[in-house]
Specification:
The protein has about 375 residues and is an alpha+beta fold. It contains 14 helices and nine strands. Among the domains are: about 160 residues, no CATH class; about 70 residues, no CATH class. A hairpin with an 8-residue loop joins strand 6 and strand 7.
């Protein structure tokens, strides 16, 4: 019988361990650590994400029961007290930087063609336990955090992520993020900053967003639009000088299926109004991405309430998302990403190829040596 690594071991091969070790050294993650190294902590948290463990006790019991199979993946059982302490004290910046490094490579690797660089920005709230109220006090006295994403809808992966308190405006992390020259940025009203729009325009970027009702272009010049279509008006103009953005802009008024009228604004003066409207529609892909991670990753129940523990768990979840995305792209047996994630969870410590999770396991063998390998 052919030997196979466990599914967990195959998935960990997508991790850039050289980058991880460098980040641990840079941030002093293992300084004076005796019991639980950062690598052991990370593998335990990744196991929790991929297996669906809902508590530290489940992580401890599950890993202890599969000690032999975890060993081949470089992991080992952990005590829940040690893991809780590590999540509270080890630098969450290690996991944030590892996610950023892996996301950049995943985005380039998953592009099938030289499509224009498209970036969608948005944020979602993640509910936390009442124990997090000290740092994550949100509306109505509920604890929550905000996950800010820069999403590539072509590669279907996040490219950058920030975690903030619930009262931080969406534009704040966007201003701090690196701008990709020449890319197209699509975002909603949460990123209403003429100064930031000007920075995008200066970097040669195209942006598409909505205009608030009180913002009007000066000296507008109408452009022809097809009759009877969804595009109601198309005109060019400029913002008032006090706004700081003096490049020519384009305002497109359209109606959507619900009958609501939207006013879009863009610095793209060449594309058709229909193409601009279609670009804005792609913003819903990030909403679908948020829905997917909340349904398939473990960010509804947290293994710790401190800010550091929450950050580590969320960034480990995002890293798990990248790994699942890369592994799913490398096989053809399972079409739906959610079905693939479920099969990974069910077969996490089984010895079978990731590319054949839908196939029945190999038949038992009469060779005692091969039977022993299969059991291990």
């Amino acid at each position: 019988m052919r030997h196979h690594d466990t599914v967990f071991q195959q998935l960990t091969k997508w991790i850039d361990w050289a980058a991880f070790d460098g980040l641990v050294s840079r941030h002093g993650g293992d300084y004076r650590v005796r019991r639980l190294r950062c690598r052991d902590q990370f593998l335990a948290m990744l196991y929790a994400q991929l297996s669906g463990a809902r508590s530290l006790r489940e992580v401890e019991a599950g890993m202890a029961s599969q000690r032999a199979r975890l060993h081949h993946a470089g992991a080992r059982p952990v005590a829940r007290a040690s893991l809780a302490d590590a999540n509270a004290t080890r630098p969450a910046a290690i996991y944030e930087a590892l996610f950023a490094a892996m996301a950049g490579r995943a985005g380039r690797g998953l592009r099938r063609h030289l499509a224009p660089c498209l970036r969608i920005l948005d944020a979602t709230r993640i509910a936390l336990s009442p124990g997090s109220l000290g740092w994550a006090h949100g509306p109505q006295g509920k604890a929550s955090a905000k996950l800010h994403l820069v999403y590539d809808p072509v590669a279907a992966v996040p490219l950058a992520a920030r975690i903030t308190g619930p009262r931080v405006n969406d534009i704040t992390p966007a201003r701090a993020a690196e701008i990709t020259p020449g890319a197209t940025y699509v975002f909603d009203l949460g990123y209403y900053s003429f100064e930031w729009w000007a920075a995008l325009d200066a970097a040669g970027c195209r942006f598409v967003t909505r205009l608030k009702t009180h913002t009007r272009l000066s000296d507008p010049k109408a452009r022809a639009v097809p009759e009877g279509g969804a595009i109601l008006a198309d005109r060019t103009g400029r913002l008032p000088p006090a706004h700081g953005l003096q490049t020519p802009l384009r305002e497109i008024t359209l109606t959507i299926a619900t009958g609501k009228v939207l006013r879009l604004v863009t610095n793209d003066l060449d594309s058709s109004a229909e193409d601009i409207a279609d670009l804005y529609k792609t913003r819903w892909q990030i909403e679908l991405a948020f829905k997917w991670i909340k349904q398939n990753l473990r960010i509804r129940r947290f293994l710790g309430s401190s800010e550091n523990a929450v950050r580590i768990q969320i960034f480990t979840a995002l890293i798990a998302w990248l790994i699942l995305r890369l592994a799913h792209d490398a096989q053809t047996a399972v079409a739906r990403p959610s079905a693939f994630a479920a099969l990974v969870s069910l077969n996490l410590l089984h010895r079978r190829p990731v590319s054949a999770l839908t196939h029945p396991p190999p038949p038992p063998t009469n060779d005692p040596r091969q039977a022993q390998l299969a059991w291990l």
